[in-house]
Amino acid sequence: MEAGESNSGNERRIISKDSSWCSQFRNASNPWMARYAYALIFLVANLLAWAARDYGRGALTEMKRFKGCNGGKDCLDAEGVLRVSLGCFIFYIIMFLSTARTSKLNNLRDTWHSGWWSVKIALWVVTTAIPFLLPTEFIQIYGEVAHFGAGVFLLIQLISIISFITWLNECSESEKFASRCRIHVMFFATTAYVVCLMGIILMYIWYSPKPSCLLNIFFITWTLVLLQLMTSVSLHPKVDAGILTPGLMGLYVVFLCWCAIRRQGYQSLLDSFGLVSIEPAGGNCIRKSDSATKTDWLSIISFVVAILAIVIATFSTGIDSKCFQFRKDDTAPAEDDVPYGYGFFHFVFATGAMYFAMLLIGWNSHHSMRKWTIDVGWTSTWVKIVNEWLAVCVYLWMLIAPIIWKNRQTGST
Asked: What are the residue boundaries of the structural domains of the chain, listed by start?
């Protein structure tokens, strides 16, 4: 029996090394190729959710009961997104439960992850169709739960990005690359800071043209303060983390601030809640705001890029399970070890299904979204801002925590 399993494993290795990509995919011998199939399924789910939001009213007119939901005349569109998202979530949760803790190649769970595509495509179609038979109340509950799941996805993505930046800095400072990468590190760090400062200046010009734009001015100014704080802590003698990591983190937080204040429907949403706005009426805190009400080719390109960015971010985060290992394992992986954590990979895609739903409905199931728009509205603004502040807190903690832990160990001895 053992000899048979060994021969089967050797055959799979031969197929994996010598055959074409199509053969590897068909014979379930390449888990790296399987990633792209799951990403393609995720992309199709994103496109289905977008179609349900922008064109679902015409396609689902026979489903009269959707029109009586609590969201009013636009609730059908948001519900269509949530139903597609729920189907995608169920599919990846099933894959998570069936592949979690897979550690070795050539076993049944590895074959299930990398093969059986006809069965899994049929499973995905069924899980996508089932939510359209569920009552509105259940979908609304899922919409509330999806807020939490999307937050989990953002936290996982945040830790993955910070871990990658830290790893890049450690590689550049290692004995092997320190002498060769010194000039490159200074160049990239300087470029990062120049881009950060230029981005902040442009945000002041574009999004706070008047002194009365207090909220935008606060967001941009606080981003500048956070950039200075990260640089000061990183260059502190006790930390000595270099200048590259705060520069790259600065790019990330400036990007989040830009995404937060580049919104549409901001003033009208505040007024709809009966809140007193501290920004001028009419959207005058955004230059060329009149063009934002039209759907042009730039809006379509921005939407397509945003959808692709969601898929790429989910894909890259899903294969980065090592950044969540609390204990570093310096031993070399065995030849038959799985190349990445299958369970973590599917869990990230499951939370990503909730995340793309929140982006398409503006984090509010009762928020009316125009065609070819994504992640706009007051709620989306605060999600980005909180994500920016949380990123800085996590980064600073990763710098300070080793020092605190070392001091505690010294004091206890």
From this structure: 29-326+335-406
pLDDT in tens, the chain (413 residues): 344 444 444 444 444 444 555 555 555 557 888 899 999 999 999 999 998 888 876 555 555 554 444 444 445 678 889 999 999 999 999 999 999 888 888 888 888 998 889 999 999 999 999 998 888 889 889 999 999 999 999 999 898 888 888 888 887 776 666 666 778 888 899 999 999 999 999 999 888 888 878 888 999 999 999 999 999 999 988 888 888 899 999 999 999 999 888 764 344 334 433 433 444 444 567 765 444 445 557 677 778 888 888 898 888 887 776 666 655 555 666 777 888 889 999 999 999 999 999 999 888 877 667 787 888 778 888 999 999 999 999 999 988 988 888 777 666 65
Handedness of CA 12, 18, 19, 24 (dihedral sign): positive
Give residue 337's Cα distance to chain centre.
Answer: 27
- What pTM did the predictor assign? 0.81
| Closest alpha carbon to 153 in 322, 339, 346 | 346
Q: What is the signed CA dihedral for 155, 161, 163, 169, rounded to 10 degrees?
A: -150
